[in-house]
Amino acid sequence: DAGVTQSPTHLIKTRGQQVTLRCSPKSGHDTVSWYQQALGQGPQFIFQYYEEEERQRGNFPDRFSGHQFPNYSSELNVNALLLGDSALYLCASSLADTRAEAFFGQGTRLTVV
Amino acid sequence: AQSVTQLGSHVSVSEGALVLLRCNYSSSVPPYLFWYVQYPNQGLQLLLKYTSAATLVKGINGFEAEFKKSETSFHLTKPSAHMSDAAEYFCAVSGRYSSASKIIFGSGTRLSIRP
Questions:
Q1: What number is the average pLDDT over the span A10-39?
Q2: Residue contact A106–B43, C-beta within 8 A
């Protein structure tokens, strides 16, 4: 079992550009959540996808959007990048409505210059 | 609304000494509570979770935590620290009754181990 896999592991973008991050959930999981972890802080919830729809959203601007595919994998898109978007982006997968634990990927380190 | 507060952004203990990381929570519904560990440049690993079965929860690597409703606390302990325990630790809470169980994290406590 490969667990939760994220790609790429590191990324450098210029302010104003757009970026797409990818996540493949753990086998058997159908729900994907995305978190932003700024340096020295705890992860902050961005949004959650289930059945290809956004089910819940945190306090992030519309520049942050996502998608879930029929195979449950997910993408996080960020438009008009700001320096403050530099962070570790974590993907977590889980099985909906079971209360089983969520599993986290290793994250994508995004640096905006 | 839910939140967690971790007391102390940095804790340093000697190898072999007791580890105590403090966490207080706030929740309007019965919560699920978690402790996660994060090693440098890695993702989050679940240490243990409280889901109302037992107030004393045992986790991996010798860690345990006790849920105290009267004190709204969920402190993490380990009797004897090991050098490999050096990492960032996050206390977290999620709702039990929400169909979309987002996890809310504290700001983290960095644990250092002195030889």
A1: 96
A2: yes
